[in-house]
Amino acid sequence: MTQASKTTQTPPAASPAKARVDEGGRGPATAAGWTAPPAAADGRIGRRTPDTIPRGFRNLLSLHDFERAARRHLPRPLYAYVSGGVEEGRSIRNATDAYDDHVLLPRFCTPVAGASAATRVLDEDWQAPFAIAPMGIAAMMGYRADLALAGAAREAGIPMVISGSSLIPLEEIMQVYPRAWFQAYVPPDEPRLRALLERARAAGVQTLVITIDSPVGSNRENNIRAGFSSPLRPSLRLAWDGITRPRWLLQTFLPTLWRHGIPHFENLYAERGVPIIARHVQREFGGRAHFSWDHLAHIRRLWPGRLVVKGILHPGDARRAVATGADAIGVSNHGGRQLDGTVAPLHVLPHIREALPDTPILLDGAIRRGTQAVKALALGADLVLVGRPFNYAAALGRQPGVDWAISILKGEITRTLAQVGLRRIDELSPDILLPRGPIPPGAIPSDGGQDASDQPADHL
Ligand SMILES: Cc1cc2nc3c(=O)[nH]c(=O)nc-3n(C[C@H](O)[C@H](O)[C@H](O)COP(=O)(O)O)c2cc1C
After folding, report:
1. Residues 433, 450: contact at Cβ < 8 Å?
2. Which of 138, 276, 306, 316 has the smallest CB count inside 10 Å?
3. Are residues 135 and 161 in contact, defined by beta-carbon separation less than 8 angstroms?
4. Domain layout of the chain by residue ranges
5. pLDDT score at 46
6. 334 an active-site residue?
7. Would the pTM count as exceeding 0.70?
8. Cα–Cα distance, 176 to 171 (Å, whole number)
9. What is the mean pLDDT of residues 305-324?
10. What spacing in Å lies between the alpha carbon of 149 and ligand 1's midpoint?
11. What is the pLDDT of residues 62-107, one digit of tens each?
């Protein structure tokens, strides 16, 4: 799906047979010729009632709730590592605020029964237009968290991106979810790069994500203040931070140590990396300061599968990545964790879409609501990535927690789609958005969009 295929507001010309499947059968025809929808067909879209919420998750009604609960659940240094950004936190704020610069302009009286969040990206069908973003060290937050994330993504039929900084070997994660993607940080030398790519290929990875937005280490002073380092340095303070979070200690940390020993960085290179808790070991950053487009071209030559380049903010870089052979690009400021004060990914998205009308575009950063995801999809993204909330969900509730977080976001997206008058993700376009604030007269064409002839013929 590309923007070219998204610019029309015309509802799909659903065949009667298709509409019947979507609506789960027709209701009785009335004297006036109306066909009433079957009971609950429309009201079910994105609907939640107290009795449909899984036990144990009654206080987790939105993705924000997972963050609040995780703050109480996780040891302070770990919560700081996941939640934090760099320096003043401006990149996080910019990314978050950008969604409010756009408001939704709904259209009504177009049939939306059977509205679906399903989509097609990179030649594969997915049940929802979002993916689980790559996140390092997740298995310190939740027990074997990467496996919980992979299992939930598999069940939900959405992409999950294995992190290059994960503590679980990518082979184990691929066994749980063979459609998972693998994100690599490029090793500093060619033999190690070759070996890592060969390892990913042997594990069955088909989609490789190269993150390019970390040429040097970032300034995460909040980590230092909170006592987080990578690797973690054993200390009385760290022990106290763990002991004062007994649920995390008993459900995540002790079972991990008991069954698997101290976790190591498993996916930075072909061979095992350093342990996550160590007194004197330095984590090798990887020497990425020299990384150039020539290196990306070399990766393209070595990697036979799909290639996604993540961490792009400049339209020129987006074009360059595609010219170098990327199959898709990821517009991202790394969750505000690299450079502070960057432009919001959402604000550059339309420019990148304009530069690359036919390339699949992924976008991430601060998406916590279905309405935010829909805004990004309307402005040109084909898929959005969501990070922190799924990390918290795995910490709080293992795979059922992630299942629940996914179902919340998917429900919100489906409901938003129907509420703006659409049924399919590929119908989203900038036409459903306006800039926030007063609208000058004449700025909204009253003859645009759906008219009677656009309506599916079988709705009356
Ligand atoms: C705890 C954590 C670890 C991350 N680790 C990685 C990583 O290993 N590789 C990567 O490309 N991005 C990494 N990211 C960035 C995410 O993939 C994604 O760009 C960002 O988290 C999206 O923003 P959100 O968390 O606000 O949804 C990490 C983010 C977090 C929060």
Report:
1. no
2. 316
3. no
4. 52-222+281-419
5. 60
6. yes
7. yes
8. 9
9. 98
10. 14
11. 999 999 999 999 999 999 999 999 999 999 999 999 999 999 999 9
| C-alpha 316 to ligand 1 mean position (Å) | 23
Q: What is the pLDDT at residue 25?
A: 30
Q: How far, in Å, is the centroid of ligand 1 from the Cα of 333?
A: 9
Q: Which protein residue has the closest C-alpha to ligand 1 atom 5?
A: 135
Nearest Cα neighbor of 327 from 298, 305, 301, 354 is 305
* Cα distances (Å, whole numbers) of residue 274 to 260, 283, 427: 15, 7, 47
Taking alpha carbons only, the member of 189, 186, 181, 135 closest to residue 160 is 181
Q: Is 208:184 a contact under the CB 8 Å cutoff?
A: yes
Task: Say what the pLDDT of residue 321 is.
Answer: 98
Q: Which residue's entry shows tokens 């004197």?
A: 280
d(C-alpha 405, C-alpha 398), whole Å: 11
Per the model's pLDDT, the better-predicted residue between 5 and 121 turns out to be 121
- Cβ distance 297 to 325 under 8 Å? yes
Measuring from atom 6 of ligand 1, which residue has the nearest CA?
135
Residue 390 · residue 131 · CB < 8 Å: no
pLDDT of 111-132, one tens digit each? 999 999 999 999 999 999 999 9
Task: Choose, from 73, 102, 264, 334, the residue flagged as catalytic.
Answer: 334
Residue pair 422/168 in contact by the 8 Å Cβ criterion? no
Best residue among 135, 363, 391, 409 to mutate for probing ligand 1, ranked by most atoms within 8 Å of CB:
135
Ligand 1 atom nearest residue 95's Cα = 26
Beta strands in 235-377 (DSSP E): 306-312, 328-331, 361-364
Q: What is the pLDDT of residue 280?
A: 75
- Tell the CATH superfamily of the 52-222+281-419 domain: Aldolase class I (3.20.20.70)
Indicate the length of the chain as a whole number: 460
